[in-house]
Write a structure and sequence with these properties.
about 250 residues, alpha/beta, 7-stranded parallel sheet, 3-stranded antiparallel sheet, 8 helices, globular
Length: about 250
């Protein structure tokens, strides 16, 4: 894992998005296609905006998956990640070769199986991810399942995760936040050739410290990124503020 600390969250969004754009262009230049994973959530706005504005990406050669979706949440709900991905990304770029969104309104086990069969046909070149306030990777809350080979699985959302979603304004009350979701598994994320992890803001500082300065543990799910050979972690001064001097210099 490499690390880059920007001064502001806006700067972070620019450099992480530009890095992702370069990696996607490189994959297309090498293979004539690129398979990508794209993130959702408030912390990813800047990265996605930069990626959307990037020049010279032939989106017709890109196949996209996304990370997670709530179970039984209607597509019309403001917090739907399908809605987020459609409105904030797919509607903003030329048509992709293919996009595979998670449908949380159907049988979740069948949806996991459907998506799992699909993603195994498209080895991922570039995955864009974030880290939750509780250290989760996608919706793999602690203690995360580091062992399952299933590409997608049904997960229970812990209270810290659900509070984050409420505090970000996606839901009016904690009770409104679904208690289950479909998530891409940790092992599936780690199979990506390159990972661009964008983590702005002070509220993520403890999770960043735990993910970088603890030994790899499923109690700190994003700590697994330490083991990825081509992961770049993009922080700003706020999200990096609790790191030790050694952690900042690594």
């Amino acid at each position: 894992m490499k690390k880059h600390i920007s001064k502001t969250s806006a700067d972070l969004g620019v450099i992480s998005g530009e890095t992702a754009a370069t990696l996607i262009r490189n994959a297309i230049a090498e293979k004539d296609f690129a398979n990508v994973i794209l993130p959702t959530g408030a912390s990813q706005f800047g990265t996605l905006q930069t990626l959307i504005a990037a020049r010279d990406i032939d989106w017709s050669k890109v196949t996209m998956f996304h990370l997670d979706e709530y179970i039984e949440l209607p597509l019309s709900h403001p917090a739907s990640f399908r809605k987020y991905m459609q409105e904030r990304f797919l509607d903003q770029v030329p048509p992709l070769k293919a996009s595979y969104l998670i449908n949380g309104e159907v049988n979740p086990e069948e949806e996991c199986a459907r998506l799992g069969a699909l993603i195994q046909q498209f080895p991922i070149d570039v995955a864009l991810v974030g880290i939750g306030e509780n250290g989760h990777l996608a919706f793999n809350d602690p203690p995360a399942d580091f062992e399952t080979e299933r590409p997608y699985l049904v997960v229970n959302l812990d209270e810290a995760c659900r509070k984050q979603q409420m505090n970000e304004g996606w839901f009016a009350t904690l009770e409104d936040v679904p208690k289950q979701a479909i998530s891409m598994s940790v092992k599936q994320i780690m199979k990506s050739a390159h990972i661009v992890c964008s983590v702005p803001d002070l509220r993520k500082a403890q999770a960043v410290k735990d993910s970088l300065e603890h030994e790899v543990s499923n109690l700190y799910p994003a700590s697994i990124l330490q083991q990825h050979p081509n992961c770049i972690l993009f922080l700003d001064e706020s999200s990096a503020s609790l790191l030790s001097d050694d952690g900042k210099s690594k």
